[in-house]
């Protein structure tokens, strides 16, 4: 049974296995063909997030093999991000011998089909060994259909020795085509609305970047001469941040977001949920007189939104048709962006805005940033010049432990663009073992640790929630250079602009994984 399953994985391009094994997985792994590669991670959270970063950059599915319930459980935190970033991860786990599961012997994954819900789009444990290949095929096609997302398959390890039914071979070349698009009438309605708008605005989300529709979004914004915001809590960057239309990231509070969009009568949201609010700031969902139109490829996003009219449709195709067909507006062209805000560092260490400005100058223009520095977002978006598709990733649910491993997975996926992880000194600890994988597989990712000694974002939230000085807010005294070297990664610690720039240039030239620990200031900028 494992042979035909590997044939199926190969037919779908899934020849990289991200995993951490246990005894339940050995019978599957024993059959792994030579043209497959196994990327070992030392903790299943890191394994899942490495696979996630890999999938986000390739735009393809990625295959994960974990150990029973315990390994699957360790991966669930990472899956909170994958399910909202619509990552098509094929997550599998070894199960105990089929006839012993009910008595719950050691390593039984009890009720495996429900364990991972709602963090997966679909999950199953085949009802018999003969159905393992078809279940795996269903999982792959389900993960990749619009409204993409992770799936989970648990397989009893004695199934692998069973004989595959002859008809299983039909699975290897079957295709499932998702082809829906808006009708001419629906497109016409949208064009009329946009052309009839006095002051339209675009709000773009991660699915625009995921569907490589950034250029279509630019064309639509330019024809409409409309401002563009990125939807709140962005996990990707769908629009060039130095374009005249770009207005930044919308705030994640209901009232704040609504006020930011005041004056716009038609708001077109594309490729984002409506909306991923975060801090609770009650108020009107929309400014008076505004109408919101929502285009998403995820039926769930469309159905659960609390306001606006939604169209479930392919993102790139819809943006391309709208941008092509809409009449160019005679509104005045939008002014070019202001200069970057002035930066500098006063305290001992680098101000985050200063760090990002230095990085903008030292890193390649097509660098890929994987960000998990949760208190420096405003400074990042003000200082960075992101112009290409696939330039930015952030944990889609804010689940920490994504950033460092996802940066490793992203660099494995794309050796032609430098991947730079921007990781807080708190976040780094949740996925730190991925440094070992980067060293082991010689993945030349650069990890910048922003070391402010505290859970800065929580200090920010303590002000919003007025909770004062609670326990557990500081993380002083961690030596990431020693940790990195313990996992086999070259590291350095810096706290001046000159030393940081030198360290970045050295890392870019090194061609091996490198960690740079930067002492940063908190609260000054
Ligand atoms: C798995 C997990 N655990 C805890 C949190 C809670 N959390 C925590 C602990 C944050 C602080 C991260 O601190 P950092 O050092 O990484 O970055 P900043 O200092 O820039 O905030 S932000 C946040 O939401 C989380 N989001 N995810
Ligand atoms: Ca911190």
UniProtKB/TrEMBL annotation:
It holds the Pfam family TPP_enzyme_M. Residues 2-110 form the Thiamine pyrophosphate enzyme N-terminal TPP-binding domain. Keywords: Amino-acid biosynthesis, Branched-chain amino acid biosynthesis, FAD, Flavoprotein, Thiamine pyrophosphate. Residues 189-320 form the Thiamine pyrophosphate enzyme central domain. GO terms for biological process: isoleucine biosynthetic process; L-valine biosynthetic process. Pathway: Amino-acid biosynthesis; L-valine biosynthesis; L-valine from pyruvate: step 1/4; Amino-acid biosynthesis; L-isoleucine biosynthesis; L-isoleucine from 2-oxobutanoate: step 1/4. Residues 385-518 form the Thiamine pyrophosphate enzyme TPP-binding domain. One of its GO terms (molecular function) is acetolactate synthase activity. It catalyses: 2 pyruvate + H(+) = (2S)-2-acetolactate + CO2. Its EC number is 2.2.1.6. It is an enzyme of class 2 (transferase). Belongs to the TPP enzyme family. This is acetolactate synthase.
